Amino acid sequence: MKPPLSAGKIEREYWEKIDEKNIPSHVAIIMDGNGRWAKKRGLSRIKGHKAGAKAIENALDSALHLGVKVITVYAFSTENWIRPEYEVSVLMTLLFQFLKLQRKKLREKNIKLSVIGDRSKLPEFVNREIEKALEETRKNNALVFNIALNYGGRADIVNGVKKIVEEGIDASTITEELFSKYLYTSELPDPDLLIRTSGELRVSNFLLWQIAYSELYFTDVLWPDFDTIEMLKAIIDYQKRERRFGGTGGI
Ligand code: FPP
To answer: Which of 19, 20, 51, 113 has the highest CB neighbour number within 10 Å of its CB?
Structure first.
C-alpha cells in the first residue's frame, strides 16, 4: 500500500508490506498498559492515561489511511469503577476533554463517533459531550470510531436477553442473527481483528459474542507506545492468517 506523505523511511517500509485488498473492516483494541508506561518513566498513572489518549488519535489516523471501516476501543469497562475514585474521575475528565478537542477533527476527517455500553452511569458532563459529538458526526462515513464506555461483554449479552424478553419475542424465532441485533453493536460488523497491548493474554469481558471468529493479536508494547508502525505490524500479522470461520479453508 502507498504510504502517507508524512511517513518516515522506516514507516514507509511497513506501509509497503500492506496488502490493500485484505484490510480488516473492524479492528477492536484493548488499550492496556497506560499505568505501567507511566511507572517506567516515574510519572503518575494520570500521565499514562493522557499519553494513552494521544495514542488513540494516532490509531484513528492509521485506520483512516488503511481503509479500516470501524475502530472500537475499550476505554472504560464495567469493572473499572473499582479503581480509586480519583483515577475514575480523571478518566472521565480525559474522555470529556478528548471529545471536546476531537469533535472538530472528527468532523474534518469524516469520522463518525459511536458509543457502546451503559451510558446511564456516566457523569452528566461526559454524556452531554458525547451527545454533541454523536450529533455532529452522525453523517460521517470514512470511519466509525466506536468507544466502549462502561461496557462489559456479559452485560451486553444480558442486556440483549432482557430486551428480547421485554419485547415478548417468540423463542422459536430467535437466531444468532436476530440476537446480534439486540447487542450494543447491532449496527456494526463483528471485529476481524482484536488487538491487546501490554502483554496480557486475556479478553477481559470485551465483545465476547462479537469476537467469536476474530483474529487475536497480542503485543508486549504498552498502549501509549502503540504507534503507526505497531498498528502496521498488527495488520501485517493479520494478513498472514488464514481465516476459516470453522470451515476447512479448502484443505
Ligand atoms: C489501561 O491502562 C487503560 C484503561 C483503563 C483505559 C484506557 C484509557 C485511555 C486510553 C485514556 C482515555 C480514554 C479516552 C477514550 C480519551 P491501565 O491503567 O490498566 O494500565 P496498567 O495495566 O499498566 O496499570
So the answer is: 113
